[in-house]
Amino acid sequence: MPARRPARAVATVLGALALGAGAPSCGGDEGAERADAPVRGGAAAVAPRLLDGGPDAFRRRLKSLQGTPVVVNQWASWCGPCKFEFPFFQRLAARYAGRVAFLGVNSQDSRDSAEAFLRELPTPFEHYFDQDVSIARTFRGGLAWPTTAFFDARGRRTKVHAGAYASQAKLEQDIRGFALAG
Asked: Which of 62, 79, 101, 171 is catalytic?
């Protein structure tokens, strides 16, 4: 029986990747490339707590960030594509620190699962807890997991990307084109 375990583990991983890449409920990009190892620890990456306050608190935070481009990532701990692309957000948030603000929105998840996810994949940005998807709806999220919204420095939403980013380079291209442009 031990000889079957590696084959079963490989099949499980390949199945999860196949489901995550094309699952309509989670979204996905074609030609997904393998993400590098997640960013862990370090001074810039901390496991932030989930903020409450609903859409009003989220809108106030966006307004407070006017003058700075903002990238908002809607995610859930149960979403394979979210976990796949999360390291891209970790690295790019660190790379663009001081030039672009990042916010996370954890939607339709349990608080315990979301907090465990953030301990495993800490970020240098804050996250809002959005059990009923009311925050995600403020930026046209809540229909696919993950969803990423881009806001320019004037606070205008410039793009909403439904589904996972296949690569860090594609996410960075959208940050440059839809958050930093203009």
From this structure: 79
